[in-house]
Amino acid sequence: LIIGWAGGMLAGTLMVIAQNFESSVFPLSLGGFTLPVYAAVSGIVVNLLLCVTLTPLFKGMGVPAGEDATTPADYEAQPVPGLALQPQEPAPAPTPSPTLAPTPTPQLPFPQSSPYFDTRQPTRPR
Fold it and tell me: For residues 47 and 4, is the Cβ–Cβ distance under 8 A?
């Protein structure tokens, strides 16, 4: 897992460096076809490919997988000494907002007969 993580981080970081930190989208060329790829997504793909290919290889070579030292007590919340939870008072009820008067319609900066403000309905050809 560490090798996959490191490979994904390295691939994504190198793609961003190749873009001079101007963009996180990298133009990936495959067989004469260029595909814009988000560097983080390609980093995840590299991570998964390394994990999927190296795990069976390492198991076949007899590399020990390691031991999980997690105990059930690790999943329980531990109180912090000196920090006691204080009961909270209920929040006050929200006050209703005052009714606002209707706002007048703003005046347009150009006359309504202007060619930029044509309110006529478009005509359909018959």
Answer: yes
User: For residue range 37-72, what is the model confidence (pLDDT) as tens digits?
Assistant: 999 999 999 999 999 999 999 999 998 888 888 898
Q: Are 9 and 50 in contact (CB under 8 A)?
A: no
> Angle CA(87)–CA(92)–CA(94) in degrees, nearest 5?
150
- For residue 101, what are its two tokens? 């008067």
pTM score, whole prediction = 0.52
Burial pattern 32-70, b for ≥16 Cβ within 10 A else e, equals eeeeebebeebbeebbeebbeeeeeeeeeeeeeeeeeee
Residues 116 and 110 sit within 8 Å (Cβ to Cβ): yes
Tokens of 119: 């309110």
**Structural element, H or E, at residue 3:** helix 2-18
Instruction: Confirm if 25 and 68 have CB atoms less than 8 A apart.
Output: no
